[in-house]
């Protein structure tokens, strides 16, 4: 995708040095910065502090973490230890576990002498597959938009960031919008700020702006009001994990938007790769681990100061405690359709398609 007119991915390889480069998303939207990652420890840290984020991108980055581990020590114990440490970095996003399982399955039968080379090659494959997957999601989502909406200017609401910054390229929930924009469809996007980390304000608004897509930032609590006023035609979000019943785990606040959309007869779409579908989650999906992040994310806010420097300011009284769950779960009854790289399905169809 474009950054100031230049093509970028969120992650790319430097094969000459066997390192990777990432866009540091903690600096956006005020500073566009890239940085190299050289080791397993650096990958784990980048995932933990959300220099890389979004379920698909986390999975791709974690795969490279395994490759770095194999470069230093290609033993079975090293592979198991690296997988365990990476899994603990962000346990809710199922793509992370999916990527680790794939790396382990393909590397375990290989002799230790050949594991690094095989791991590096597999990482490149996973990276390329992510781009193709997101392109397919975009095309299926475009068909859904074209076949179900006939209006001069579509009004679309999205929550958090499920654009190209959450993947290697194109994105999940925003991929259909990029395809729609390229085809000349007239639409406008309401962008939830997405507290407490403000991924909507910092990331979605930034990347939509890079592509000159009309959008307006709103407070998280304004979405229901817009729906009541008839200012939203459909909602589209990504997902970090989807159960076989079509229940959706996504950024905190998604559930409230889904309920509001349901109450106002507004379609609520979820776009995600099929690797996000938790095939073990056939029941008790509400018992999955929900990541609880540091309370400072709620008590503090990041922005530019008068010297054009990134800084954190405290927005709550000293001594205030905060609870900071990163995700919530939207029951399948509130989900209209789920868009994957294979097609568009009702929640009830997932079990028959992906069992």
Q: What key attributes describe this structure?
A:
Rossmann fold, 18 strands, Four Helix Bundle (Hemerythrin (Met), subunit A), 7-stranded mixed sheet, 2 domains, globular, 4-stranded mixed sheet, 355 residues, alpha/beta
Describe the structure.
By secondary structure, the chain is α/β, with parallel strands linked by helices. Helix 1 packs antiparallel against helix 2. Helix content is 38%, strand content 20%. The chain folds into 2 domains: 129 residues, translation initiation factor eif-2b, domain 1 (Four Helix Bundle (Hemerythrin (Met), subunit A), Up-down Bundle), CATH 1.20.120; 217 residues, Rossmann fold, CATH 3.40.50. The mean pLDDT is 95. Strand 6, helix 6 and strand 7 form a beta-alpha-beta unit. It is built from 11 helices and 18 strands. The radius of gyration is 20 Å and the shape is globular.
Chain-wise SSE layout:
Elements: E1 2-3, E2 6-7, E3 11-14, E4 19-23, E5 34-37, H1 40-48, H2 55-72, H3 76-89, H4 94-107, H5 115-148, E6 154-158, H6 175-182, E7 187-192, H7 199-210, E8 215-218, H8 223-228, E9 234-237, E10 241-243, E11 248-251, H9 254-263, E12 268-271, E13 277-278, H10 296-299, E14 300-304, E15 310-314, E16 327-330, E17 337-340, E18 343-345, H11 350-354
Parallel strand pairs: 6-7, 6-9, 7-8, 9-12, 10-13, 12-17
Antiparallel strand pairs: 1-2, 3-4, 4-5, 10-11, 11-16, 14-15, 17-18
Helix pairs in contact: 1-2, 1-3, 2-3, 2-4, 2-5, 3-4, 4-5, 5-6
Catalytic activity: 5-(methylsulfanyl)-alpha-D-ribose 1-phosphate = 5-(methylsulfanyl)-D-ribulose 1-phosphate
Site (Transition state stabilizer): 160
Active site: 240
């Amino acid at each position: 995708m474009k950054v100031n007119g230049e093509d970028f991915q969120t992650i790319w390889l430097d094969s000459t040095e066997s390192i990777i480069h990432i866009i540091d998303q903690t600096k956006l939207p005020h500073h566009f910065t890239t940085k190299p990652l050289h080791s397993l420890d650096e990958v784990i840290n980048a995932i933990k502090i959300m220099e890389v984020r979004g379920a698909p991108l986390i999975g791709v980055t974690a795969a490279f973490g395994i490759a770095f581990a194999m470069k230093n020590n290609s033993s079975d114990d090293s592979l198991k230890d690296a997988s365990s440490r990476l899994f603990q970095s962000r346990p809710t996003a199922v793509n992370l576990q999916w990527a680790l399982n794939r790396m382990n399955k393909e590397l375990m039968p290989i002799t230790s002498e050949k594991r690094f080379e095989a791991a590096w090659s597999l990482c490149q494959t996973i990276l390329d597959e992510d781009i193709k997957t997101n392109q397919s999601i975009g095309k299926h989502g475009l068909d859904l938009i074209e076949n179900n909406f006939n209006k001069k200017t579509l009004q679309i609401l999205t929550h958090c960031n499920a654009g190209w910054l959450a993947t290697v390229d194109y994105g999940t929930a925003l991929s259909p919008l990029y395809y729609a924009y390229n085809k000349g469809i007239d639409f406008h996007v309401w962008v939830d700020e997405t507290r407490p980390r403000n991924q909507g304000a910092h990331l979605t608004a930034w990347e939509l702006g890079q592509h000159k897509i009309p959008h307006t930032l709103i407070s998280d609590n304004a979405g229901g009001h817009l729906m009541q006023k008839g200012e939203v035609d459909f909602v589209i979000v990504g997902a970090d994990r989807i159960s076989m019943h079509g229940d959706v785990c996504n950024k905190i606040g998604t559930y409230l938007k889904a309920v509001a959309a349901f109450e106002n007869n507004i379609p609520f779409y979820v776009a995600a790769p099929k690797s996000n579908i938790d095939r073990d989650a056939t029941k008790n999906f509400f018992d999955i681990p929900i990541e609880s992040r540091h309370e400072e994310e709620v008590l503090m806010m990041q922005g530019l100061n008068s010297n054009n420097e990134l800084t954190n300011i405290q927005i709550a009284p000293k001594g205030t405690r905060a609870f900071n769950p990163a995700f919530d779960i939207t029951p399948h009854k509130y989900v209209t359709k789920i868009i994957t790289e294979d097609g568009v399905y009702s929640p009830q169809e997932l079990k028959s398609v992906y069992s």
